[in-house]
Write a structure and sequence with these properties.
CATH architecture of the largest domain: 3-Layer(aba) Sandwich
Strand order of the largest sheet: 5-4-6-7
CATH class of the largest domain: Alpha Beta
Number of strands: 7
Largest sheet: 4 strands, parallel
Helix content: 40-55%
Length: about 230
Amino acid sequence: MKTIGLIGGMSWESSAEYYRLLNELVRDRLGGLHSARCVLYSVDFAEIERLQVQGEWVRAGDVLAAAAKGVEAAGADLVLICTNTMHKVADQVQAAISVPLLHLGDATAEAVHRAGVTRVGLLGTAFTMEQDFCRERLSAHGLDVLVPDEAGRGLVHRVIYEELCLGVVREESRAAYQEVIRRLVDRGAQGVILGCTEIELLIGQEHSPVPVFPTTRLHAEAAVDAAFGTSG
């Protein structure tokens, strides 16, 4: 089993999900007391969030690149950025290390294709929904990507930062997300990508009329496949 390097803390709530999923997936595969070989570098999310708001993406990338070097030095054979939004600096991070960076967008797109879906709604932070780095990565895989309208994007973003990143899960926010999903389906979405790791704390398949694609789980599954040399 290869060692998986995790760049987390964005937020730690979702990084805890990554850690749980990786260990459960390895246990399910090997049985007994087996668990994942992994190294976690958890950043201070307040620093990253400030750089996001200020548009200081290169400086934020420097922080993540340093973290990636740290997990590589600690023995990681592959690296995950445990957040959708910070895949904006994925190329900068990959350039800083000699081991592979497993891109969340690629793992997600492969799962969407396996489900036979070609048009997907994308939920995430405003950065993920409004900037090109995620949508273009998915489009490069042949997917047609829809995002909510301005009001929907604002609601989804606010709930992520003001509630989910703090571990707060509210039924009224779940209902509001379901309405955003319904409107995406009305526009032709055949599935919905939960394109922020924290969204999986709020929305599951039972909350959507179309298939949902939980990026945290899909990323973790791809990482375990890679760790065992069974990807692809």
